[in-house]
């Protein structure tokens, strides 16, 4: 276990890494000050999934699935069977009257699906020779079935038996799936969201397409549930849409736009012109109240109830943000292609602060995206109660793009990267106290020094 003390501070509106802090200096709010490097993969690690309070599984381009103990960093199991990269992974929990057991389902570019027992490392079921590789998985535990999405939508039971399927007519296929009320699911397919309804009759299941939502102008990159009544989608063009989960109507449409300051010179405008990818919404996360969007290299927090921007940072990382998490209503975390994991806090503006620059958020409207007319645009500087997004911690350990992370709360944080490594981050102060307790216990057992 390495001791890693890092902090973050800001300078003139940009993110800047602070030097390593020394003993006696003021410590940052970042509590993850110890790290342990976990080795085992030999290619890009793209996925992490939490199995229980103490275990997670990692998977990536080497086709391996590794099971880890997050308390000790021990590699518990090595699941081998796929010959090509893993394209999707999820947990599947089967409950009965006595016990509950969690399995892993994986999909691979080798056009196969596998069911694994993470306790033993055994491959319980496998399906080979699919027509195409699966891009996403969704477990419907209430119905005890699971769904795979790619060029076709397939519904499977817990015994890996195909119940029904539908062929899709799209070059990209299904890239994301979420569960909706009334036995419905939403599938992102290029620029559209397709609503399917599952019908369960005795032991058989059927699926039917019932609606297509064609309000996005570009490819949908993120799709998430907010609560039982709402879901959200984000596109490559920076469109954030809030949907009614039952009627499937648009409740809010926000188009994130670049807007340069009027005081900028022509040279500054030209140099600051964004690339198309910088408007793309790569990831969305929510806690039911707020939506956190990773847009290009920036972060944007949106209030679901008030349908307003809470805070934003146009440049939160040096490269595209790949994954985000809301730790609370005021704390959040992000990771990026730049190799860093950053912790942020939403803070009130100082009383004497000048109005924030509109920056990335130029306008939003609540009309449908395919309509030409809409309500007048509204500038971010006109929004009351706009807040600041302050950097509180910077976790530097990976040498490649950090793909995602999983939080185990008090037990630590796990990150994965293109550098083939996982890093287990721990609360340094807590770990120091635990080591002291163990030392005192040993001294007591031996009767002191």
UniProtKB/TrEMBL annotation:
<feature type="repeat" description="WD">
    <location>
        <begin position="57"/>
        <end position="78"/>
    </location>
</feature>
<dbReference type="InterPro" id="IPR036322">
    <property type="entry name" value="WD40_repeat_dom_sf"/>
</dbReference>
<dbReference type="InterPro" id="IPR001680">
    <property type="entry name" value="WD40_rpt"/>
</dbReference>
<feature type="repeat" description="WD">
    <location>
        <begin position="104"/>
        <end position="126"/>
    </location>
</feature>
<dbReference type="Pfam" id="PF25178">
    <property type="entry name" value="Beta-prop_WDR41"/>
</dbReference>
<dbReference type="InterPro" id="IPR019775">
    <property type="entry name" value="WD40_repeat_CS"/>
</dbReference>
<dbReference type="InterPro" id="IPR015943">
    <property type="entry name" value="WD40/YVTN_repeat-like_dom_sf"/>
</dbReference>
<dbReference type="InterPro" id="IPR040102">
    <property type="entry name" value="WDR41"/>
</dbReference>
<dbReference type="InterPro" id="IPR020472">
    <property type="entry name" value="WD40_PAC1"/>
</dbReference>
<dbReference type="GO" id="GO:0005765">
    <property type="term" value="C:lysosomal membrane"/>
</dbReference>
<keyword id="KW-0853">WD repeat</keyword>
<dbReference type="GO" id="GO:0010506">
    <property type="term" value="P:regulation of autophagy"/>
</dbReference>
<keyword id="KW-0677">Repeat</keyword>
<protein>
    <submittedName>
        <fullName>WD repeat domain 41</fullName>
    </submittedName>
</protein>
